[in-house]
Amino acid sequence: MELSVISLDGKAGGKVKLNDEIFGLEVRADLLHRIVNWQLNKRRAGTHKVKNRAEIWRTGKKMYGQKGTGNARHGSARVPQFRGGGRAFGPVVRSHETEMPKKLRQLALKHALSAKAKESSIVVLSEATLKEPKTKMLVQNLEKLGFSNALIIGGAEIDKNFGLAARNLHGIDVLPVQGINVYDIMRRQKLVLTKAALDALEARFK
What we know:
By secondary structure, the chain is α/β, with parallel strands linked by helices. It has a domain at about 1-30 and about 100-205: 3-Layer(aba) Sandwich (Ribosomal Protein L4, Chain: A). About 35% of the residues lie in helices and about 15% in strands. α5 (about 160-165) links the parallel β4 and β5. α4 packs across α5 (about 160-165). The longest helix is centred in the middle third of the chain and has 17 residues, at about 100-120. The radius of gyration is 27 Å and the shape is elongated. The two termini are about 20 Å apart.
């Protein structure tokens, strides 16, 4: 597959050929689903916590006699049946992270890139740089290119001015090539790769 290279101001800059081993796979939705779930689980803090009956500050004395009251048999007031009692089987502090083999993660990234290529949603930029960190200037350029919801992948480092100008834009994410991931690719309509990012990806999957 061949794509035209454009500059940030919309000028043509030649063509590049996408590697079919990275951008031409038959997309597996089940694999993308697994990886997105893995990423979101990994992001969870897992700090939710409730108090069980052992942690409630309340008397443990038997409420009333076992027999003769006509009421149910109760002991401690800290049990979950009562308002103010402990919570039964509530959440505790834990990690939600699961294991995912490295080869599977790499394969899923290829499938995510292939999914965008199949939708014709990949754009190649010559470079993502700005002379000044001006958001207004960047917005004008992105509107000309038709990018309202996009993930922009730069080279090994994001241009400082470009990063500052883009960080407040709703619907626009900017990442270095090392940070490219399935979830961010799939949540945006367009995937914008710089030539440096494209070369880095092809070198990464050799």
